[in-house]
Design a protein that fits this description.
3 domains, 6-stranded mixed sheet, globular
Length: about 375
């Protein structure tokens, strides 16, 4: 009898233990379910917040880029004028044919814009100049910001002072002599660009050692060590810092000082060449118009007005060369013989100007 009671009590105790274990397991399962459900709900709301934030950023970027595009269009029209544009603290990334604010792109199309690949400041500086050949071809728009530092390394004839004075005073620019490069200090700029008027000098690069190589670039204007006047045509080499030395890239060319200034503002050789191709595209199209006009006027004047006929005939010959040369530069700039081509176009530019003055002197229809 005693044994029977003991067995019954054990069975009761065992069943009670099983029930407790089952209850604990159910409680743990409920907590796991609550955690999983909570995590799913949390992730759901996080996704909503992120999507809303992304949508807000895209909308804000789109608004800024629309306003900036209107401002840049106005700045490009106003030549010989410097504009300071107040901006929100956003990064603006430039490429040859477009720029970005966030993920929002804006095509620059045929506009000739020279700019660094990245602008980070709260202010944007714009400057525009005419590019004439000698007829007006297009406006060059230059863009930078006050946080990007430009160091002009002077030559023996103080040509650097000429360039320094012509560049907008709102730029973060400084003029140094080659023997002063070793005294340069790091001013915490996010980018630094050197402009060498003659020989390259590695001094001063160690003083900027905290900056990454990609953030220190330069150009060398070749062969003007002892020049006191900026040549209208010349050779440029783009430079990239590599440790304590300059890595020299392949050379390119400029035609008139406006395109030289483009090399100062452009991020690198690839961007400069690409933008110059757009400039030569406009030159080619406009030259075709003037060529067709002078061809007809030369025939129109004929032998009845030799002076006018000859002025337009000479212009026709020179315009023909510029048309063909600019067409080549669209597909192949700078090209191996580019400097000779630039010199020839510069000379024909002068000749066309002379013929236009001659046409004016004899009361003929002007060439341009």
């Amino acid at each position: 009898m005693k044994t029977t009671k003991t067995k019954g009590f054990c069975r009761f105790r065992n069943s009670l233990g099983i029930s407790k274990k089952r209850g604990i397991i159910e409680l743990q399962f409920n907590w796991i379910f609550v955690l999983i459900a909570g995590a799913i709900i949390f992730v759901f709301f996080i996704n909503i917040v992120n999507k809303q934030r992304e949508f807000s950023e895209v909308r804000t970027s789109g608004t800024i880029i629309t306003n900036l595009d209107s401002i840049l269009t106005g700045a490009q029209v106003s030549t010989n004028t410097v504009n300071i544009i107040e901006m929100p603290k956003v990064d603006i990334n430039f490429e040859c044919d477009k720029y970005f604010i966030g993920s929002s792109p804006k095509q620059t199309k045929g506009n000739v814009i020279f700019a660094p690949d990245l602008l980070k400041g709260k202010k944007v500086i714009t400057w525009a100049l005419d590019w004439n050949m000698p007829y007006r071809v297009t406006n060059f728009l230059y863009i930078t910001d006050p946080e990007l530092r430009y160091i002009i390394v002077n030559n023996s004839k103080n040509l650097g002072k000429v360039i320094f004075d012509e560049l907008p005073e709102e730029m973060n620019k400084e003029l140094v002599h080659p023997n002063e490069l070793g005294d340069l200090k790091d001013k915490n700029n996010y980018k630094v660009k050197f402009i060498f008027l003659g020989d390259i000098n590695n001094n001063g690069l160690t003083n900027l050692g905290k900056m990454q190589d990609k953030d220190i670039t330069g150009i060398q204007i070749v062969g003007i060590n002892n020049e006191n006047v900026l040549p209208s045509t010349g050779t440029i080499k783009f430079l990239q810092k590599k440790g304590d030395f300059w890595d020299q890239r392949t050379e390119t060319f400029y035609l008139k000082k406006e395109s030289l200034y483009g090399a100062i503002f452009a991020a690198d050789k690839e961007m400069y060449d690409c933008v110059m191709k757009k400039a030569f595209t406009k030159l080619n199209l406009l030259t075709q118009i003037y060529l067709a006009r002078s061809t007809r006027l030369s025939d129109y004047y004929g032998i009845d007005n030799a002076n006018c006929a000859n002025a337009h005939y000479q212009a026709k010959v020179q315009l023909e060369y510029i048309k063909d040369s600019s067409q080549l530069r669209i597909t192949d700039f700078p090209a191996t013989n580019g400097i000779n081509n630039m010199i020839a176009m510069r000379d024909f530019n002068t000749h066309i100007k002379d013929e236009n003055q001659r046409a004016q002197l004899f009361s003929c229809a002007l060439i341009y």
